[in-house]
């Protein structure tokens, strides 16, 4: 498995769903799933929605999804997560300030103050 998973190295399909909405999808022959990302431009932001669909013969697919978008962030920006998201897991090998790999924390209250720098070792 490549670093950061397999889909970033695979070709994606693209579809325009509406004037303000795009859909991107990729199929994994290796694991039998389709990952779909829909991006919608709204009056006050950009919404991204992800869905993983399993092939009919797959009963389950254990996975971890770690969003880490790269874009400029300013004081007036917000990162909004679903209400049901109440935990985060440390996927940083070596631990560092976030504790050991696999440690689970309550969200949105991380173990450190927002002003502190988080690093992976």
Automatic annotation (TrEMBL):
<protein>
    <submittedName>
        <fullName>Uncharacterized protein</fullName>
    </submittedName>
</protein>
<dbReference type="InterPro" id="IPR014718">
    <property type="entry name" value="GH-type_carb-bd"/>
</dbReference>
<dbReference type="InterPro" id="IPR011013">
    <property type="entry name" value="Gal_mutarotase_sf_dom"/>
</dbReference>
């Amino acid at each position: 498995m490549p670093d950061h998973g397999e889909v970033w190295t695979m070709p994606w399909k693209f579809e325009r769903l509406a004037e303000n909405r795009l859909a991107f999808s990729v199929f994994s022959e290796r694991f039998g799933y389709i990952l779909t990302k829909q991006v919608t431009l709204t009056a006050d932001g950009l919404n991204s929605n992800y869905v993983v669909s399993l092939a009919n013969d797959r009963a389950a697919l254990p996975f971890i999804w770690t969003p880490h978008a790269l874009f400029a962030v300013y004081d007036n920006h917000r990162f909004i997560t679903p209400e049901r998201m109440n935990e985060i897991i440390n996927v940083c090998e070596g631990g560092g300030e976030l504790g050991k790999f696999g440690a689970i924390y309550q969200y949105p209250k991380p173990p450190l103050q927002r002003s502190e720098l988080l690093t992976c070792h």
